[in-house]
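Need fresh eyes. Consider my entry:
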Amino acid sequence: MLNDKLQNHNLILASGSPRRQQFFKDLGLDFEIRLKNTKEEYPDRLHHFEISDYLAQLKALPFKEELTDSDILITSDTIVWHDNKALGKPKNQTDAFEMIKSMSNKTHEVITSVCFTTKTLQKTVNAITKVTFKTLTDSEINYYINTCKPFDKAGAYGIQEWIGQIGITKIEGSYFNVVGLPTHLVYGTLNSFVE
C-alpha cells in the first residue's frame, strides 16, 4: 500500500539492527541497508528525547553528501530513560546487571527517535513508552544476561525476550517502540512525505 506510493523514492535504512530491518519488511517496504559508523556521543546538557533525537540526526550526517533527489534516509536511536538519566547499551555483564536491577519494581521510559532525511528536508519524530517491571530476583537477572546476552540493547534488555515475558507487568504506549521502532510513526511520516 505505502510501498506503491513510495515507488519514485529510494528508502535507505541506516541500521544494522535485525529488529529494525524486520519491521521494514513487515511494513511491506522496499528498502536498502547502508551502514556507516557513528560515535554515539551527545552533549551533557541534553535530556530525555533530546538525546535520542540528537543521536538519530547525528547518524544521518555521514550520508548527507551522497543522497540523491529520490532518496529518503532513515536513521534512529533508542534510549531507556530511568531515574532522570539515559541508559544506553551496557559495557559488560556487571553494567547490564546494574541497569536491570535499577529498573526492578519500577517504571522506566523507552524513547525511540526516528530521523527522515532527504536532500532538502529533515524531520525527526519520537515515541515514548512507559514500561513497568515486577520485582526481579538477582538469579532471574543473571539467568537472562547469561542466556540472551543483551549487550547490544539500550537498558540491557529486549522486551521480546525472556525477561520481557516473565518480568514486565505494564506497558503504556507502543510495544513496537520498545522493540526498537515506533512503526506507526514511521508509517505515518513516510505517508506524509508522499502526499
Q: What stands out?
A: The helical segments are 2-5, 18-26, 49-60, 93-103, 138-148, 162-167, 175-179, 183-194. The radius of gyration is 17 Å. The chain has a mean pLDDT of 95. The first helix runs from residue 2 to 5.
